[in-house]
C-alpha cells in the first residue's frame, strides 16, 4: 500500500535511508535527508507492507513553474528487485501528471541508480562528478 508520509514515520524512514547507505547514499547525506523530512517535504509517500515501511519517495515542485522533481526514493534492501521501486516511481509520476502545469519531471540521482530511471523512460540531462559525496556523482535526468 502506498500512502502519504506522516511525521510518525520519520524514525522508520530514516532507518530505511541508513539501510541504503553506503550502497546508494553516502553517510554524509543523512543530515540533508533529515532536514528534508523536517522542512522541505511537499508530497512524500511510503510503501507499506504488513505494517512495515519498505519504501519511500517524494515529489517537489521546482522553482521553475512547469517542472517537478522526484525526491529521495528508496526501497528496503530485502525488497529490492521485486517491482516495488517501479510501482512507487509510477505512483509519483502519475501524482505529478495530475498537476496541470507540470510539463517536465526531473530526478537527481547517482551513477548507482540511474539505470533504474533509464528503464522508466528518463534520459540523462547532465552528470556532475562527486556531487553528492566522493564517488557519488549527480546524474540529472528528465522525462
UniProtKB/TrEMBL annotation:
Residue span, N-acetyltransferase domain: 1-143
Database matches in Pfam families: Acetyltransf_10
Transmembrane region(s): none
Superkingdom as given in the UniProt entry: Bacteria
CDD domains with a match to the protein in the record: NAT_SF
The name this protein goes by in its record: GNAT family N-acetyltransferase
